[in-house]
Amino acid sequence: MPLISEEPQIPESAQGPRVTPAAGRTTPTPRPVPGPRSAATPRPGRPGPGPARPAPPAQRAHPAPAAPAPARPKPAESPSAPQIQLIPAPVAGALDAAEEAVDLLLESGRAPGDILVLTTGEQHPWAAHELSFGEAAYWAQHDAGDDVFFAHVSAADRAGARPVVVVAVNGDADPTVARTLPVARDRAGALLIVCGDPQTINSALGAGV
After folding, report:
1. 81 near 165, Cβ under 8 Å?
2. In this predicted structure, which of 2-16, 48-62, 77-91 has the lowest mean pLDDT?
3. Which of these, 67, 85, 95, 123, is most buried using a 10 Å CB contact count?
4. What mean pLDDT is predicted for residues 24-37?
5. Which of 15-24, 64-73, 141-150, 193-202 has the highest mean predicted lDDT (pLDDT)?
6. CA dihedral defined by 35, 40, 41, 46, rounded to 10 degrees?
7. Exposure string (b/e) for 68-91, b if CB count within 10 Å is 16 or more?
8. Is 80 helix (H, G, I), strand (E, B) or coil?
């Protein structure tokens, strides 16, 4: 007869599955409960902050641009001849035509100091009045260059260049006109206006108007 043990045997199916530790492994020891983590301590399984990443392209420091090559000097341009305008007028009316031309220039925005008026005959009344105070005071106004200046053609060599020169051919001495107009053209930087008889003027300028 089989012996009946005093302790009942529990069937293996009732005991649940047995876990056999793998060969070479030791039974893990209980881990201590971790304390509070600081911000610098990475959470297990997640990478830490690591080294600083390079800044995006927009934030990177750009190297200083290379200094531009010095500009080459442009070759000197030959001075262009001034534009010439002819205002037909009789000898007696040349001075009035010159004054009207000056008024139009000022109304168009020309600065008074840009204009020189030369007469081939009688002096302009303004020039005659100013010369009564002496030539020193008269030419001082010319040198100041802040107003329209009136002079006789005989003083054209002393008058400096100005952007606009207006010539009133109010005298009928052809040799004087022939000597004056080339000088006036040299004094004009941009515009030469001649008021007088067209035939006389064209002859003096060599039909260049």
Report:
1. no
2. 48-62
3. 95
4. 48
5. 141-150
6. 140
7. eeeeeeeeeeeeeebebebbebeb
8. coil
- What DSSP designation does 158 have? T
pLDDT for residue 37: 44
What mean pLDDT comes out for the span 7-19?
Answer: 51
Sole residue written with tokens 């009688």? 122
What are the C-alpha distances in Å from 151 to residues 45, 52, 81? 100, 82, 22
Whether residue 176 contacts residue 166, with contact meaning beta carbons closer than 8 Å, is answered with no
Instruction: Give the separation between CA 144 and CA 158, rounded to whole angstroms.
Output: 14
Cβ atoms of residues 21 and 27 within 8 Å = yes
Burial of 102 (0-12, 13-18, 19+ CB in 10 A): buried
Q: Are 120 and 167 a contacting pair, CB within 8 Å?
A: yes
Mean of pLDDT over the chain: 74
Residue 169 near residue 195, CB atoms below 8 Å: yes
This prediction's pTM:
0.61
Contact between 152 and 119 under an 8 Å Cβ cutoff? The reply is yes
Q: Is 159 exposed, middle or buried (0-12, 13-18, 19+ CB in 10 A)?
A: buried
CA neighbor of 150 nearest in space, from 128, 171, 175, 132: 128
